[in-house]
Write a structure and sequence with these properties.
This protein is mostly beta strands. Helices cover 0% and strands 44% of the residues. Strands 11, 14, 18, 19, 20, 22, 23, 25 and 27 form a nine-stranded mixed sheet that branches. It has a six-stranded antiparallel sheet with strand order 5-4-7-2-10-15, with no helix packed on it. Mean pLDDT is 83; it is low at 1-7 and 310-330.
Length: 330
């Protein structure tokens, strides 16, 4: 990596991005003139894996991506980032690694493609920057492979601030983040020759994640109502079993309506209703979503015949779980 926040050219992207145009999305607040097209797809998900064998000693993984990544190390969820930023000062995070082992770095990469004030996107920039260095600062080559993930779909909500995440487990390569997963048929990342980033260490702490179980679970006709007892921004984790193509409807909200159900049509112009389509048999665990939802309650108002809710590991009845930022003491 070049020093002092200067331009770094070690970025990688997918071959599908070779003809995408990078643009400047800066404008005055009331300027409604159209921006030039980028040719980039929106709501674009990619799974990437890098495997390497480290000698004895201590190592560091320096990592960032545009727009966003979630990281697993040797199959264990480790974190996400970076903090939203512009290319002129683009942050990376550092993760410690222990040598004397083969390390699998698994990343869920995401390009949103919308222009909003949530993060910097819609500019045609999608890529990954990663380096593993030893205690002397010497780099270790990483063999990267990737596959586009088509399990996610959905329309924008709010004021084009995020996409709903309808999830089709039949299109998701289960276990892709594990070291023993066979990625030999996956493609290879290519250099992002357009990369114009100036990298800096992230100046803020990474997103803290914790777990909170529902305070109450109420049966409703054909489903469940999960009450978390307070306002949270997070992700519902739920297990269920069923057959391929059967689905579970998920609704999220901050309050109840007059019928005592989750008011999933929020007052902020968001309609948080999503569909989870199951794969065949067994337990199905909803992956950590890329964009959290605000909720006090989550509803599972209905599932197809034969679908059964199951206990979530380390959770109480039926396995509702939410990941959220740290909670202040009352």
């Amino acid at each position: 990596m070049t020093k002092g926040g200067t331009q770094d050219t070690g970025w990688l992207t997918v071959p599908e991005w070779a003809h995408v145009r990078q643009i400047n999305v800066f404008r005055r607040e009331q300027d409604t003139s159209p921006l030039p097209p980028t040719g980039a797809p929106a709501n674009f998900h990619v799974l990437a894996r890098g495997v390497l064998t480290l000698g004895e000693g201590d190592y560091r993984l320096r990592l960032t991506a545009d727009d966003h990544y979630q990281l697993w190390l040797n199959g264990v969820y480790t974190g996400q980032g970076p903090a939203p930023a512009y290319p002129e000062r683009y942050p990376y995070l550092t993760y410690p690694l222990t040598g004397g082992q083969t390390v699998t770095v698994a990343l869920h990469l995401y390009y949103q493609g919308l222009i909003n004030r949530v993060w910097n996107s819609g500019d045609g920039r999608f890529g990954l920057w990663a380096e593993i260095v030893d205690s002397n600062g010497e780099g270790c080559p990483i063999d990267w492979r990737y596959q586009r993930c088509t399990a996610y779909s959905g329309t924008p909500v709010g004021y084009d601030t995020q996409f709903l995440e309808d999830f089709d487990a039949r299109q998701y390569p289960e276990g892709w983040e594990q070291p023993d997963f066979d990625d030999s048929a996956w493609g290879r990342l290519i250099p992002a020759l357009w990369a114009d980033y100036h990298l800096i260490p992230q100046e803020t702490e990474p997103l803290w994640e914790g777990e909170r179980l529902p305070t109450e679970i109420h049966p409703i006709p054909g489903g469940l109502l999960l009450d978390f007892g307070r306002e949270l921004a997070g992700t519902l984790h739920l297990n269920a079993s069923g057959h391929a193509g059967q689905s579970v409807l998920l609704r999220f909200g901050e309050e109840l309506n007059w019928k005592g159900r989750v008011r999933y049509e929020l007052r902020c112009n968001c309609r948080y209703q999503e569909r989870w389509t199951l794969n065949e048999g067994g337990k199905h665990f909803t992956p950590i979503r890329l964009q959290g939802v605000p909720l006090c309650g989550g509803a599972v108002p209905g599932w197809d015949g034969g679908v059964e809710p199951l206990r979530q590991r380390a959770a109480s009845s039926h396995g509702g779980r939410v990941m959220h930022p740290p909670l202040p003491h009352r």
